[in-house]
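Bug #77: duplicate submission created two jobs. Keeping one. Sequence:
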Amino acid sequence: MIIAEFFIPHGHCYLWKPELVGLHIVSDALTAVAYYSIPLMLTYFVAKRRDVPFNWIFLLFGAFIVSCGTTHIIEIWTLWHPDYWLSGLVKAFTAVISLYTASELVSLLPKALAMPSAAQFEAVKNEIQERLRTEAELQQAIAQLKQEMAERRQAEAALRESEERLQLALEGSALGWWDWNITTGQTYFDSYWKRMLGYEVEEIENNYQSWERLMHPQDKPRVMEVLNAYLRDALPLYEVEFRMRSKSGQWKWILSHGKVCDRDESGAPMRMLGTQKDISDRKLAEERLKHSEANLATAQKISHIGNWEFDVLTGEITWSAEKFHILGLDPTQPEPNYAELIEKIHPDDREPFQQATSQALALGTCYELDYRIVRPDGQVRYIEGRGEAGVNEQGQVIRLFGTALDITDRKRVEEALQESVQRERAIARAIQRMRQTLDIETIFSATTEELRQLINCDRVLIYRFNPDWSGEIVSESVGTGWISLLQEQAHNPNLAHTSLEDNRCAVKKFDSAAGCDSVLNTSFPVQDTHLQETQGGAYSRGTSYAVVQDIYKAGFNSCYLNLLQQFQARAYIIVPIFCGSKLWGLLATYQNSGSRQWKTAEINVVSQIGNQLGVALQQAELLTQVQKQSEALRQSEAREREKAQELELTLGELRRTQTQLIQNEKMSSLGQMVAGVAHEINNPVSFIKGNLTPAREYFQDLLRLLELYQQTYPNSTPELQHLASVIDLNFLVEDWSKLMDSMQVGTKRIEEIVRSLKSFSRLDESEQKLVDIHEGIDNTLLILQHRLRAVGGRLEIEVIKNYGQLPQVICYASQLNQVFLNLLNNAIDALENQSSPRVITISTSVSGYQQSVPNNKQQITNYIIIRIADNGSGMSEKVRQQIFDPFFTTKPVGRGTGLGLSISHQIVVEKHKGRISCISAPEKGTEFIVEIPVTCNRDVTHNRAETSLLKQLITT
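Kept job's structure:
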C-alpha cells in the first residue's frame, strides 16, 4: 500500500474534483485560525495567573496547537505549490511536539493528583480571607502611621529648609555662627565658622576652650572685658573685633556679634548666640586707605593743594590738613562753618565767592575762582578755588566738594612782571616824549604827569636851584582833591624854599657796601641845614635819593612837621637832577593820603626819571648854546665877510660834533635804562626758569604715585572716577608736559629779549670790534617790536628779511645799531598812515669796488650793503636832497628833532668811511642804502681831538 509507484500525489487528487478544492481550503483555514486562537488564550491566561501551578504545561500545549494549525496552512500552500518536503517537515515537527507534550503529561499526572482537594481549598480560602482582613486592618494602621510620618517629614523638611535658608544667608553674608551654653560651657561652631579659619569640621572641638585658644593673646583682655561687660548688661550688644590664628598660622581679623537668647528666672544669662565674620580684607583695605590718605596729604602739602567737602543736608564741612595750613589754621581744631569761612576771605572777594557757591548750590554747576584769604596773622594769600556739585537721583544738590590751591607765589611773580612791564612802558613813553621835543617845559609837564600815574602817588614836582642856591617849583602834577603848590608859589614866592629847606630824613648813597633794599628799614644820620645855606645839602655831596615813609616817624622837628602838614604831605621820595656834574634841581614825589612803604622798584623808577631829566636838560642847554652861537656867527659874518667861509665850516663841524655828543648822551642814558630794565626782567625770569625743572620733577613724582594708585586700586570710588572724568585726567597729564614746554620756550624767549636789550645797550663801547651785522639788525628789530605789532586799530607791519652771506666786520657796533634804529624808526613813521599792506624790506649783500691807493695801484675794497626799504608814501626830490641836513625834519612839531639821519650820516661816512644814500619818489616808497667797508679803521686820536675842541667851544 505504501510503495511509491502506487502513491497518488495529494494535490492531484483534488484536481480530479475541482469542486472539492474550495471546501478543503475553507476547512483548513478555519482549523488553522482555531488552532492559533487557542494558544493566544492560554498565553493570556498564564500571564494573568502566574500563581497557577505547572503553568509551563500551558505554554507547551500552546506550541503543540500552533504546530497543528501550521500543518493546515501548508495544506492550502501545496494546492498551488507542491512543496511536500516543507509539508512533511512541518508535520514531523508537529509529531515531535506532540510526543514531547505526551511525555511531559505522563510525569505531570502524579503531581496533579497530589494537589489539595476542594475542602482543602475552601479551608485555605477562609484562611486567606482572614489573612486579608488582618492585612486590611494592618494596612489601615500602616496608612495612619504613614500619614503621621508624612506630617513629621513635612515638619522636618520645613525645619531643614529653614536651617538651609539660614545657613545660606549666613554663608552668603560670609558669616559663621556659634551657640554657647553659658551654664554648661558647651559651645557649637558651625562648619563655615571653622572653614573661615581654614579648619575642617572635625579639626576644632566644639567647646569654649577652642575659641579662647585660637584668640590672639594681645586681644584677649580687651575681648573678655567687652564680653563680661555685656553679660553684666553694661553694654546693649556684644560686638568686638579681634584676631584669631588660622590653620596656616596667619592671624585673621574677626568681627563677632552676639546676643543672649535665654535667661533663667533670676535673669542671669544661660545661652548666647552669635556670628563672626572675617574682616581681614577690610582691615587691609583700611590700612591701605590710611597709607593712601597719608600719601595724598603729603602730595597736597608739596603742591599746596587742599581739598574740602560740604554736606548740604547736614551743613557739615570737612577739610584736609593742607586746607587748614593754607588758611593758617590749626588742623586739630574743628573746621569753621560757612559764615566763619566767609569772614576769612578778603572783603573785596567775598561777594564773587558767595555768588559762585550759591550758583553751584542752586544749579548744580561747577566753578573756578581766584580769591584772597586773610590769615590770623594778617598775611594775605591768593587762592585758586575749584568747586563741583554732587546731586542725587532726583537731581538735587546734596553736597559740594572741591580744592583750594595756594597761588600766592605765582601771583607775586605775575604782579612783579606786570609792574616791570608797566615801568618799562612808562619810562619808554617818557623817553619818547623827551626825544620828540627839546622844549624843557613840555618835557617837565609830560614827565611829572607820567611819573605820578606810574607810581600812583598824589603829587610830583620839579624843583630848580637858582645860582644862589635858592629855588622854585617849575613843574607839578597833582591829583584831584589836593592843593597845587605851583599855584601857591605864585602867591607865596618863599613857599618852595621853605618846604624843601629841611633835609631831616633817611638818606643813603649808592655804594658797594649796601644794596637799595637796606634803605627802607635802616636809620641814618639826619641833616638839619637849609638847602641854600649848604648849596644843595646832601644832594650836592652825592646823595642819590631821600626816602620818607612817614613824616611822623622820621624825627622831624615840630615846625617842619607843621609846614609839611600844610602841604598835605605824609611820605615822599626826592632825587637830585644833575645837568652834567652840576646839581640842577630836585625831583620830588609825595604821598598825601597816608604813610607809604616805598618799593625799591619805585625808588629806581624815580631815580631813572631824574637821570633822564638831567640828560634832557643837558640837551636843551646844548641846543640853546648852539642857537646862540649860530646867531653870533651870523652877526659876525656880516661884520667880517673875509672870515665867513672859515666860520661857516667851523660852525658846520661844530653842529655835527655837537649833535653826535647829544645823541651819545641820550643813547648812554638809554643804554643805562635798558640795562636796568633787562636786569629787572632777568631776576623774575631766572626765578621762573629755576623752578621749572623741580616743578616738572614734582609732577612726574605725582604722576608715578597716581599710576601706582590706579594699579593698586583699579576700581576706584565713583567720586574719584567722576572727578577724573570732570578734570579730564588723561588730557591733564598729556597737556602738562606741553604746558611746561611752553613755559620753557617762553622763558627762553624772554632771555633772548634780555640778551638783545643788553647787546643793544652797549653804548659806552668806544673801541672797534668784530661784529655780526645781522645780529645788530635783529636786536634793533626786537627793540622795535612794540611798534611793529598790531595794537588796537593800528595794523601790523610786516618785516621781510633778505639776508645774504656776510662776513663779520670791524666797526663800532653800538653806533651802527643807532643807525639801524634811526632808519627803522623813520620807516615805521612813514607807514603810520599807510593802509594794508605795510611792509619793511631789509636786504644785505657784499659788493666789491676798485679804489686808488698810493703808487698808482688799484685795490678792491669789499663793502657790506644794507638796504632798508618801506612801501610808504615816499618823498619828493627836494625833500630827499635835504634829509641828511642837521635839524631838517618833515615830522610835525614835537615829534622829531631832525638829528637822526644827520647823525646816521656822520656815523656811516665819517666814522666808518662808508656811504649812505636814499632812493625815493612820491607814492613809490623809500629805500636807504648803507655801505660799510669790511675793514673800517679810523683815526681815533683825531676823533678825540674833535670832541675836546667841541667841549672847549661850549664852555667858552
